Amino acid sequence: MNSQSKIVLFADQSIRSHWDAELEEWFFSVVDVVQALTDSTNPTDYLKKLRKRDEQLGEYVGTNCPQVAMPSASGKSRKTLAATTQHLFRIIQSIPSKKAEPFKLWLAEVANQRLDQLQDPELSIEQAMLDYKRLGYSDNWINQRLKSIEIRKELTDEWKKHGLQEGAEFAFLTDVIYKAWADKTTKEYKQHKGLKKENLRDNMTNKELVMNMLAELSTKEISEALNPNSLSEHEDVAKRGGGVAKEARLKLEAETGKKVVTSRNAKQLQLENKTQKKI
Asked: β-pairing, 67-71 with 25-29?
């Protein structure tokens, strides 16, 4: 398993973390987080009592929090209870500590915003624009990215119409599309850009976004024309849709002498954008 561990700071205290490259998830030491939020001298015992007192939490932790090897105080690797960010939020909600209150209030605010966005989708678009601007993306890139979201939604709606399942089947077909036009699976593409948990499309250049949009739009259009039934038929459609974009990519590369698929990620692109503004 390709992985790495590091120490992060949380509430001025050290939290052990572990990156699982296969799952593309960060895992954090639950005991370390409990200690940071409670100042307990024995966080392991505190967690045991918490799980006994809250049976639902105990069951949740037992189901979702694996034992992961992380460096101990002595420097040796020892297994410890670990959780993803999502699972940590659930645990934090059960901790009766003043330090945990800001996180609980933040979670409530996020949930409220999400309900508002479900009632009015335009709010989601406005929020996305603000988020991307705050992260330093250019207006031109933001417009391309929002368009790519619309096209992706049309494709996934087409897949849903045919009874395909979100999750494994969507991910499989997305891999097929990427492989067809970019010669890389999602994982290979992210590795090429030096990404881990980050969203791949958020780290594409304008040209990459356009090619991916063409691939997904073509896949949707071919699917509507052929009306595939089985997953294997959808796979063939995805290859053909990605193939349309590959032809365009190869033609553009031949005309310009420049590769479309690049190792540049969002941080590098934003740095280039800032440099150009200063010139």
From this structure: unpaired
